[in-house]
Structures are given as C-alpha cells and as structure tokens.
Fold these 4 entries.
Entry 1:
Amino acid sequence: MGTAKRRRSHGEGSVYQRKSDGRWVAAIDAGYVNGKRRRATGYGATEKEALAERDSIRNKLQAGVDLTKRRTLATWLHEWLTIKEGKGLSSTTLDRYRIAIDKHLIPGLGRFKLDALNARHVQQFFESYQGKARPASIIKIHAVLRASLSTAMSFDLVQRNVAKAVKPATHSRDERRVLTVDEAKVLLSKLSGNRLEKLFLVAIATGMRRSELVGLRWIDVDFDQEHLWVRQKLVRTSRGLEFGPPKTHRSKRPIPLSMIAFNALCQQRGLQAWERYMAGEHWANYGLVFSSTIGTPMEPRNVNRTFEAIRAEAGLPWVDLHDLRHAFATYLLDDGEDLRTVMELLGHSTIRLAADTYGHVLQAKARRATTAIDWAFAS
C-alpha cells in the first residue's frame, strides 16, 4: 500500500518543474486582490533553489509585502513603514520616518515605479533641496530612503539600492551663530520672574536637550554630590506625550552641576513645593523637576512658545531653545575644555558628531594654538 500524499496547508505553497523549459517554479497563494485569487511566484534552476525561493516568498508575505503588483515608491514606503512598526521601534523614530516619507519622499519621488527608480531621479531630488533645507534634514531624508530601498533589495523587489549611489551634498552646512556671553546675560535678564526661568537656566548651564529637561525627575538629581543623571526624556509623538530612554546610549549620562545649575534647581524645588501646596489634592505626583502647576508633564511645545516670547523681548529673534545647548558647548570649548569632555557632557553619539557640530570653534582654537610657535621662537 503506497504512502498517501500529504495535503499542503494553506499558505505553504508548492514547488514544481515546468515541462516547457525544465525550470523550477515556487508558488504561494497570496489571497484575494480586488476579488481575484492571486499567486506570488518565484523561480530556481534546481528544486533546492525553488524551495529556498518559496520560503523567501512566504517570509515576505508574512511581513506584509504585497508581491502581486508592480508598486510605486510611495506604495512601498508605506509598506516599509508598516514593516518597521512591527519591529518595536520607538514612537519618535517612527514619527521621524513618517515625516521624511509623507512630507518629502512621496511628494518628490513617490510617483516613480519602485523597480524603475534610478540614481539620477534620486540625485535630482536631493539637488532640488539644496539651499531649501538644513544639511542635517537632508541627511535624515536620505537615510530613510536608503534604508527602505535596502529592505526592498533584501525582498528582491529591486536589483540595487540606488540611494547608495547618491551622496547628498553637505558641504553647505551653515555656520551656527553662537549666543555671546553678553547676549546670554540680556536673555537671562528677561527671564527673571518667569515661571520657566529655572528650566532655561539649567538648559544653558548643562547643555541638556529640551526633551531631557522636561523629562528630568527629582530622583535623578543628587544635591549632595552636586550632579544629575539624564535617564529619560519626554516627547510628543503621534500617540501623545511619551516618556522614553534618552536619544542614544551615550545620552544617558551624568552631568556635574555648576553653581548656576545647582542654585536654579534648589530654587525650582522651592517653587514646586509652593505649587504643590496650592494644588492640594489636584497635584499629580510624576516626580518631575519641571512640570505643570499641578505636577503633570509639560507640553514641550509650550516650553518653546515661552522661550520665543522671551527671545523677542530680548531682541534676539534668531535664537532658538536648542541654541542654549550650543552656547554651553561653545563656552566650554572656548575656555579650554577638550572635545571629548564636551562630547560626553552633551551626550553626543560620536566624537565626530561633536567635531562636525563645533568645527568653527575648533578652527579658532587651532588658530590660537599655532601662535604658540611664534612665542616659542620669539627672541
């Protein structure tokens, strides 16, 4: 009695050899598309190759990739984002991807068929951005396109990653204007009496990011040892306000407190104690250093709005909140601190990033350093 042929389960697929040319075919049921049954197919020179192709097709279908149609880049980018959402990425990372995709890549390149997109299309797209966007923004958009095409290539949807052949020009990096000490004093004088005065003082005295400041907790401040720890951030995402880990692993760091920062935190503790007393039973104890008047997390955008009003009053319309972080770093470098120390205090991921960001300061330091040769040979 012969062995009964096993019935294939749904989605398992089949592998067979065509009589016409002897080529092996892998086919898997892809379900219904617009009311019609569709199959996803692949090929191999041998049965072993076809079996491997069948497994590859099955993995793509399970990942949510539609293999039944020739898609545009716009369609693929949305599919790719769905795949990334299933990888457990943070909300802020996914939001950054969505912005790059919906505001830039789809309007500029989305109409092209995915498998017809070429390096010239990509090059022209990024050339159109020169002078219209910051180099850092262009780099992020390019990174999203490159990553999405890399996934498409791994799924055999494209033969090559054309984004890798294009290097967006970044030499036009604008030299950041730095807040001078005198300008900082004017700005700080306008802060006096503002409820968020201590937040801005800590910002310029520690170089912390906005997300780190509004996420700072009292348990992360050590008044005895005079330092604080950056251990979490607070950001607004498409899901609402969310606490999460710092930007990178290096962003989780200790920061020694200067007297300015130490005194500001002491005064903030007193202010919050009064607000807690006034709120009574309405106080929400999140343990945050900088919170709303009832203890809840602050809306980050409101912090910016307050700062924008103060900078206008100080006659410094070009200054944004992030410039306080850059001012902190610049003052340290000008005072002789080495780049690696500044990098660690800022929580930069690499020393190269710090060097690129503060290249103008380093050039000035290098110029001053070369005068030591003149002094050495002076008679």
Entry 2:
Amino acid sequence: MTTASQHTAQVELTVGQVAGSFGVTVRTLHHYDAIGLVVPSARTHAGYRLYDDGDLARLATVVAYRRLGLSLSEVQALVEGDGSPVEHLRRQRAAVLTRVEQLTDLVGAIDRALEREMNEQRPATTEELKEMFGDGFGEDYPAEAQERWGDTDAWRQSAGRTKDYTTQDWTAIKDEQDAVNAALVSALTSGAAATSEQGMDAAEAHRVQIERWFYDLDHQFHRTLSDMYVSDPRFTKSYEDLAPGLAAYVRDAIQRQRGPAPRRLSEAAVVSLA
C-alpha cells in the first residue's frame, strides 16, 4: 500500500474533502468504495482513504453519469468499459445527448399539459362558445342579449355567473343541456303527452339546468320563458332542429307545471342557451 509521503507530486484529498468538492455525501463515497466503483488509491499512515488525481477524474465521471439518472450498474459498465479516454468521453457525450433528448421530450409534455390547464382555467371565448352551441351564439348575440335584457335581474345574475366560466365549464353545460334535450325528445317521440309524468319530469330537468348555471328560475318565470320557444324564431328553430313539434311540446310541458300563474311577458328576464 502506498503512503502519503510517496504521493507528494499529486493531489491527494480525504473523503471529507472530496465529498465537499463534489457535492456528495461521505456515505456515498464509502458505498462507491465498497462496490469497487471509485476506490481511493492511497492511504495516510493512520490508514485513512486518500483520493489521487486519477480517482478524482473517475469520480467526476461517475457523478456526471449519476446526475444523468443512470443506475450504478449502468455507470459501472460505462466507466469500466474498454477504450481510451477519448472513447470514454464519447460514451459520456452519448449518454448526455440521450438524457437531453429525454428531458426535451419531458419539457414538451409539460408545456402541453400546462397549455391545457391554462386553457381550461381561462374564460371561454365567443368563438369557442359558437363552436359548442352553434351560430345562435355568434358575435352579435351578447350585445343583442344585453340590449334586450340588460336591465333585468336575471341578466345581471347570469352575467355575473358566466363571466368567468371556462371552456371546461361550458363543456359541462353543453353536455347537461344535450341530456335534457334528449329527455324532451324521448318524451315527444314516445308518444307521451306533454302533461304526462315523463314530459313533466323532462320539463323540470330543463328548469333546473338553467337555474343551476345561469339565474334563479322559479316555475312562474319558467312558464313565461317557455312562451319564447314558440314566439321567437331562433328559439323555435333550435328545438325544431332536434325534433319536429318539440318547441310547442316543451312549451306545453312547462306551462302545465305546478305553481302560481305566469307573469306578463314584459316582466320576463331571459338569458338562456336552451
């Protein structure tokens, strides 16, 4: 065994000094020594480990590979492979490039996930709403609706609720609306009367869906709203496109729901995508 006095021409560091220099723990260095990965070449007279220049160069390579995420067995195979120092460096470079490629792919995946999350959390655009709900929710609709109902409590309540709705929120609204409309179509095409239990249940689901997402809608207000389904051509078309006769069927089912008599139409405050 060589001693410190025989190695005065080169750097020799203790375990503690090496650990501090390379940012690893003393325990890690002891483990590398135990498995033969990086074995100190020198000892002091008292028997303490000393790392010389060659040991430090090998350790630097091991640390670099470990920081690339390679396992100890992979690192050992690389550092103990045959070849010149140039070939070792080429292997190290290849390992680095592989890791860079993996990290680049990971960054891309994170960016895509971040973009999805940001899109879901921002308010939906008019273009996105038009794509989900059709041309009836075009660029002129918000201005027209505000001019028509902007001084009503229902408009103010609906505007307050929906201003921050995200694309994800509107998708949930659309899915629920489609389910309500499907129940209404099913009641109509099955031959059930608008006053039947099936028709009334579908009408109540229609009311609840509007109230959940837009504004307070009691049965009295709901009946007033239903008149528009046969008097406003755009509302009528949205139902007739689903099934002929559906607009009048929905109106009749809503009109027969229990509750006080409907208010005058001039009192209606309607902001609905239904």
Entry 3:
Amino acid sequence: MSIGSILNIARKAIATHQVAMTITSQNIANAQVEGYSRQRAEINAATPLKLPIYSIGTGVQVDGVIRMRNELLDTTFRREAGNREAASTRSDLLQEVESMLGEPSDGGLANSIDQFWNSWSDLSNSPGNTAAQSVVRQRGQQVAYTLNSYSTRLDDLTNRSRDRLIGVVGEINQLTSQFAAINQQITVAESGGHQAPDLRDLRDRLGDQLSKLAGVRVVPQTNGTVGVYIGSMMLVDASNARQLQVGSGSALSINIVGDPEPLAVVGGEAGELMRFVNTDLPPVKGSLNAFARGFVNGVNEYHASGWTPAGDALGASNWVPANGPTGSRVNFFDASFTAAGTIRLSAEVQANAAVIASGDVQNAPGNNNVAIALSTLRDRTGMAALQTRMGANFATQIGFVPGVSYGDHYGQTVTSVGIDTADAMNQFTVFDTLTQQADLRRTSVSGVSLDEELTLLMRHQQAYTAATRLVKVADEMAQAILNMT
C-alpha cells in the first residue's frame, strides 16, 4: 500500500459523503412537497484489493440512490382514498337533494300541502265564496309549482352529474396517458439497474389521483413496469393506455373506447356519480311522481262530482243523458299530467276560480260536502274514505299503501333521503379516518423527518471532515519522507 492509496480512499470518502449530504439536502428541501419520498444513498464498502496473502479495503462508494417506499402501504392508502372520495361525493350530492326538499320549512312541499287542505276547510265554512275559491286555486297552484320545481331541480342535478362524470373521465384519460409515458421514461432511466426516484414519485402521485377518481389498483408487473387496473380491466400496460368514455344510454355508465360493454366495477368519484344517478335519484323522483299521480287523481275524484253554478255548464257535455246530471265533471288538476314535473291546474280552474266546487248537490249553495271531504284528505281517515269510495280504482289511480296519507307518503320520501344522507356522511367520516391513518403509516416510511435528516447531515459532515483530515495526514506523511531524502 502507498500514500497514494490513502489519498484515493480519502478522495472516495469525500465524494461519497458529499453525495450523501446532497441527497439529505434534497430531502430537507422537499420536506413539505406532497407525494415526495425521502431518498437515501446506498453507501457500501468499495471492492477490496486482493493481495497474495491478504486483501485490503479501498474505501467507500455510493452504489445508488433509492427512495423509501412501501408498496403495500401505497395500496392500502389508495383503497381508502378511493372509498373516501366516493363517500364524499355521495354525501355532497345527497345533501343537495335534502337541501332541495328543504323540510321542515315554510317553503317546502309539506307546508304547501297543509295550506292546500286548510284552504278547502276554509271554503267549507263559506261554500261558493269567491275569495275562498281563489285561495284554493292559489294553494293548488303552489303545490303544483313546488312539485314542478323539485322535478326540474332533480333533472338539473342529473344533468350536472352527467357533465361532471364526463369531466372526470376526461381527467382519468389524461392521467393514464401521463402514467403510460412515465412508465416508459422510468424503463429507459432504470435500464442501467438504478432507480429513478423522482420519476417514481411522479408516477405514484398519478396513481394516488387515479385512485380517488376511479378507485383504480396500481399493480407492479413482471417486466418492471406498473399497470393500472379498474376492476379487472387493465387501463395502463407499460407504455400503452386505454381510453374511457361515458356511455350514451339513459343510465350512466363508463366503457373502454371500442368496447361497448360497461365497466362492472368503478370506484372513487366516477363510480359514485354513476351510483347516485342510477340508484339514489330514481327512488326520489319515482316517489314524487307517485305522490303527484295520487294527488291529482284523489283531488279530481271528489272535485269532478261537485257542483257550482259556474261549473255545471262546463260539465254538462260530459254527462250521460240517460243518467242525468252527475256533477260538474270539472277536474281540479289536469288529468293528463300526473307527474311531478308536469302537474298543473285544469284549464277550467286556471281560467275561472268560480268553477271550484264546494258541495255535492246541485242547486244547493250551502252544501259543503266536497270541500269537507277534500280537507279530510290530510289524514288517514280521509284517505280511508277515499279508498272506500274508489274501490279497486284506488290501487291503480292512487297507488298508496292503505292507511298512508299524502303527508305520510311525502314524509317517507323526506325521511328516506335524510337516512341516506346521514348514512353517506357517516361513511365519509369512517373512510376519512381510515385514509388519514393509512396516510400516516405511509408517511412514517416515505415522509421526511427534519430531525432525522439534520442528524444524518451532521454525521455525513463529520465523516466528510474526517476524510479531509485524512488527506492532510497523508500530505504530512509524504512531507516527512521528502524531508528524509
């Protein structure tokens, strides 16, 4: 061994610890960067020099730079993050439906229905009173307007959810294309056998985003690349990315471009948007439509049999001559429009409130039986009377379960939405907690601890200083030999 060997060992030590301090500095600088994985220099003893009777070390070297990452913890985090995003999306959308119904409130449908029944009660106290008839018409118009408004807003929410899904799918396509491109860059960069930490971090950040949008799985492949799966379908294979599109059917769906078969399993935000439109909204819309149909047919059942001087002439053409006069035959609501989005007053009532009937006997101004019967529809007793009156037609024209009033039916709708909303909020709380816990576990491995990095920085600094001292010692040894000659 020579003094030159000592200097060579010192040179390697200086270079090695300089690299280590550079990597530590990089960690400190990126401590607050989301998705950054701390890096470590792989420092190992250099290949020793083998001599005839022994071998001697040749110093230290950096064999590579690796990042601290655990794939299992990544998988857990992405699963929980996808569930959290789905629960958050559903909670927000259901809260919007709950806010739309706005119960209990003075502007909600429940109050409009109560005011409608109250107006009939007032009319029963003053049969044929023009002011009371006008109030009944106004209250009926308010019920129709509220139902129309609910239907319009639910349709708008459906359309906005579809547009949002189209935007999410476009974002997924963009991210998968980037993922495939980075896969290729990593393959090239790591062809020499060393990791490319920064590129891998970028790819993992894309995987995190995709898991939130669609609940994807990021799976390492045997060829060294990483694949992206949505359900059992592979979206990204090495440098190839398959594009998604929103289906054209009435029900929301997502399929791979070129394959009309909808994807069976989609999570994250995209999956919850489809579930909301396809599963959560239809029962609400169906319940409101069922209410509107039953409301129109029930009110018309009584009103068409009533009498008013103004209504008699309008209904005369509908009488069967052999049976004689059978009520004015004027509907309160238009019988052709029985959905929540289309319910409206009949043309006759809209044109003239004087056709609104109070009694069930012709030429009996003080008779108030129709108004009383309609006012009692607010409760189950009145509905039971209506069922008895209609017989078998009750099931087809009203469709409510026996013993359920109009208020009960609507209350069940509101309660169902409230339960679903509370459940979605609870699910969000659970998955938010699980996501935070998974992130903490992942960060404990890949996150940067400033205290730890500063400690490492000082250790490498001390080793660097010691190496420079070794150079000085070698220089003193060489000087001593020169002084001897």
Entry 4:
Amino acid sequence: VVKNQAPLFAVVDLADLETTNHAPQDWFWSGYVPAGHLTYWSSHGGAGKTTLGLLLACCAAIGRDCLGKPTKEAVVCFFSAEDPRDLLLRRLQRLCRELALDYEILRERLIIIDATDFDPVLFTERRVEGMQIGTTTPTYDALARFVDTKQVDLLIVDNASDTFGADEIDRAMVRTFCRSLVSLVKARNGAVVLMAHVDKATSRAGKGLVNSESYSGSTAWHNSARSRLFLLETAPGALELQHQKCNLGPKQPPLAIEWPHDGIPRVQSVAAGPMQGYLDDNDTRALLRLLHEFHGRGEHVATATQSRRHAVALMSGEKTFPKRKPAEVFDLLRGAERRGWIEREAYKDSNRKPHERWVLTVSGEQFAEIPAGSRSARSSAQIVLEDGAPQSESRRRFAPSAPSAPSGVRTAPEPSAGSGAPSAPTAQRGVWGVEQRTSGAPDQEPKS
C-alpha cells in the first residue's frame, strides 16, 4: 500500500439518490450552451462563426434572445486569439446598431479580450523526464485570475487552434485542455464555448450529413464537449447551424440563418399558407428577372444543378437574388418551368460543345413584369422550331421535341455571321498579467 498518495478516483454514494434533489439543467443559450460544461462550435474559416459568437456574447450580456432562442443574462468574456481589437469593435458596432443595444449596459456585462499581440496559448506540452505532459500556461493563469475577479459566467474562446499548443490528435492532451477551460468557470456553474476551425474537406462533409464528423483531430474534441455545434455556409449569405451533439437534452433541429448585405445574421423567415405562396412568387419573379438580365448579356444559366454555372453559382452575388437555400432556388425554377414561365434551351458554345440553359417564355416575361421595350425578340410570338416553321408559344409548347434535343428542350437556331448574337462578357492598453503582483491583482484591465 502506498501511503500519502493522492486519490485517483471517487466512489459515488448512491444514498444521494434519495437525499438529493438535483436541479434541472441550466442553459446560457437555450438548448445549445449548457451551464457547467464546454460547447464546441466549429466551422470552416470565413463562414461567420466569430460574428455569431459576438452576437451570442451581446445577447447573453443583456439577456436577449439570440437567433430566436432565449439566453440567460450573464457576465460574458470573449477571449479573442485570432481577430484584433479594431476588427472586433467594427463587428460589435454593427451588432449594437442593428440590435439597438444600450452601450452602457453592454459595457457593464461584456468583456472583450484581445490576445492577438501577445502569446494567446492557454495550454501546451513539454517534456519532463522523457515524457510529454500537458500543462497550462502563464496566459491561462492570468485569464483564470481575471475570470475569477470579474465573476465571468460565460467564457467564449476564439479559437482552439490559437489557444491549444499541443498535439490535436493526442486524446489525453485534448481532454485535459477542455477540462482546464471548464474549470475556469466551474465555481459559478458557468459555461465555455470553444470556437474551432475545420479544414475544407471536413467542412464539405457537413453539407450532406447533419451528424458528420465536423471537427479536426482527435475524437476527444467531440467526446469532451457536452454540446457540439457546426456552422455551415450553404450559399453566399445563407448559413445553417447544425446541432450535432447534446448529452444534456434533445438536439435542436438545423437552424437556417440568413445574412443580408450590410446587415447581421438572423433566423431565416419562414411563412406558411397563402403568405408562403406570395413570398415564393416574389422570389420567383426576382429569379426570372435575373435570368433575363444574364441571358441578355450572354451569361447563360445552366439547367443542371451540378453545373458550375447553375443559378446559385452564377447569380447569388446579385443584390436581388433571393435569400434561399440552393435546394429552394432549384425548386422555384422547377416550379416556374411547370407553370410555363421558363424553358430549357439547347445551344452550342464557341467550341461547338452542346449545353442547356434556362430562357424565359413570353408568359414568363409577363409574369416577371419585364418592360416591353427590354423583352427579347422571341417574345413577339415568332418562336421558330427546328423545321423553320414559326408557331405561337402555346402551339410550340405542346409540339413534339426535335430529335436532336431532350424532351422539353427547345433548340436555339445557331446565329449566322453578323447576326448580332450576344458575345461572352469580358471577362498595449488594458494588458493583464504582464506585471504580476503578489496579490494576483492586475495593474490594468482589458476594456470591452
């Protein structure tokens, strides 16, 4: 028997089953961020994770709903190891302006730490007597004193790659790092949100499978978190927040988020019944106008959803493009085809390679309210089939397709020389922990 050895485990007294009434699980962000535990939030770089993390920080600091989910009012600390002060303040100013937040209240309960000009590593590894061991750093110690002094309830760390200085595939290292973060707020039953980057391959895997392994490195990243979120960019200006793990309650369904130009992320509006039909018609009208505009300048929108020139890939950068998921855009186009507003047209490019594109019909141009003066020449009811016989649109629509084109595809007459066919487009203030006093108190504090 080894005397004076530190205990290695503890036995749970089952008498507590009768004598103790455990309180329900508390949440700092309802369903997503559990109190007393670590939440791992990953995405590919540039998806908007930091802005959403700041949005959560602002909402929790004043107890306001975040993306439609309640938050618990808390003292929040956002530890940035990636983005510097100026960039953080610019994002915060936009959030405050759009949400009409009270600056004075926010300054009392939100703390922003910029560690980018210092050593932001909170956990590292070193060799002791021939063995690699994990250990916290002086930066971690300074953060621990700061969090305790400020009574921080919710700590958001951005991000894992800049604060974890050990081997990311070493389970023991990862597990110890995650536990050390939770210990920073454990005394107050607080919560930690750890932001993390994933590589492109991992990010792409999340596009078709909600429960994909959207984290890099050891499975300990997944296992050490009680809740795990993954932010997926589905299209420019469109995001999806996936809840891929939760040990403390039901996983939340995927949350569709839209990010308007010059705005802030918000829950994508969902309407039902007649209102949904009205919104669908408006979005379809916007798509048809863009199709007309692009086709008129020789930028043809492919009908195939796997093409590099389909509607989302080619037109999503336009201001009037509907804020929809790609699948919804394709559904709107198929609906427009069923209603006779667009049709498929076979054509050949400059290399004589066959393709298929969307073009508007006469009724489609009318539905899209395209001015008569800017409508295509084909809308004058002279629609030419391959046999050269002009027919009205209604007769042509039900006429048999030409043998050289798939069913339902109109073949465009090839332009002759000089026909005028469109050509392709031309192409050190607030430093904490630098000078440590014997009492552990800082000289200055970071400003939010």
